[in-house]
């Protein structure tokens, strides 16, 4: 074999590795998107069950296979991420992409858990002796949390760091609404001991929604890291500066 042929062999090998890497990464992203679609459906169903007082819809989410399937898919995605890291040892943008998917995968699984928790609270609330009117701010918070989840996943799909930054700025609004709901519920529970149990169920629901919004924010922050290589977590001043500049 000539010296030129020997020099070309490693180059061809690296090229094949990159082809295989991008193929496996594309398949991984498809699996994450399938998990995201399942989690989105669960979030929507749990919120609908509570707001529209459909107990059968909430009970359907409490079937063991719902949570189990999300958990299994989360584990499978994590295993695929680890295999890709071990097999291809990606660097720079490719490494950030796989690491970001690994983190997003965890946030999706936790969103699924929180949706199940909301369904549990909805069942307890709707089966209670006293059913309170839902706080007027709950619908606004619900709609905002759902928008954040949908947009964060869209930012991931499109590699859109600007959209991701905008989502991060929405989290503070969710926190403010959550405080308003808690204040409202405390006032309602003080009115009568009978209001305490249903009030606590709504209190927990609001808290779970706030946590879902937090996980959507986490995904958005990971998108910024994947696209730009900048960690904006715990640095709100950088987020505002960059968003304003764009």
Summarize it.
By secondary structure, the protein is mainly alpha-helical.
What would you say this structure looks like, in words?
There is one protein chain. The protein has 246 residues and is mostly helical. It has a single domain (3-245), classed as Phosphate transport system protein phou homolog 2, domain 2 (Methane Monooxygenase Hydroxylase, Chain G, domain 1). Helices cover 87% and strands 0% of the residues. It has helices at 3-51, 55-61, 64-88, 92-126, 136-158, 161-191, 196-228, 236-245. 35% of the residues are buried.
Named at the architecture level, the CATH assignment is Up-down Bundle
Assign an overall shape. elongated
Structural domain count: 1
In total, the number of strands is 0
- How many alpha or pi helices? 8
The span between the termini is 55 Å
Mean pLDDT: 90
CATH superfamily: Phosphate transport system protein phou homolog 2, domain 2
The biggest beta sheet reads: none
Helix content: over 70%
